[in-house]
Amino acid sequence: MSNVPRSNSRRSLLRGAAAVAGSAAFPAAFGQRIRRRALALIGDRYHNPDYIRVALAKVFDGIDIAVDYTIAYDQLSAGLLKNYQLFLSLRDGMIWPDGYLGPDSYTGYEEGLENQGDFPPPQPRSWLTEEQAEALKQFVVAGGGFYSLHNNSHVSLSSKTYRDVQGGAYIGHPPLRPFTVHVVNTTHPITKGIRDFLVNDEQHFVEYDKDRKNILLEAENIDGLTFENRGSRSIAGWAYEYGSGRVVFTAVGHTIHALWVPEHLRLQKRAVRWLLKDI
Fold it and tell me: Can you list the positions of beta strands (E) in 32-176?
């Protein structure tokens, strides 16, 4: 992992990532191999970047790659991505320019405020620009790997280009509750040897736009509970080649407990290795 500064400010986090990333542009001296690098864009209103970084540390453990973590969504660009072989993102497509009182799980605090009227209703807007979406597309077309996790499918709602690379888009999800993730393609390098596993997580429902032969995983509520009119079963992961690069999406990831379910952890490691063309 990179030595990200201890300051929690967006600017200092970016400086740490950019400084290390910039060094990757220089050729290795005396024939030494340049170490591969991954950029992880993480964290949003509903997903603290701390738990994501801690969770992903286990995913990358044992894989020959250095990881730079950042929350600086506005710095995503072709110039930044050129220093990396893998781009990973676990964050949604929303920013809140006028602020908000807190995550939805703490609405009880908001209801107890004496001066609720002093705060405007929170209004999100998209952070992604079309230039950033195009930068990601060219990064993958040129041979890069893109690992989209959990609520990152929400970003596709704001860009046809991003959606075309990612392969689908967010619909919605029920509350945290147990469901089984079924491996529906047992021959793909990512899922080979992976068994079905149980998680207690948000079961994300997504639209998938590509060839259905690329679907690797499906989720099913163990109690038969449905979401809206979409039943109890949902697509939970896919993988395909895009240009000279590769794309993976996996839907589980709202909690560190779900990310660290042993079989799911094995799956994530294999996804990273496949994106890096190690398997």
Answer: 37-42, 66-70, 86-90, 94-95, 125-126, 145-149, 168-172
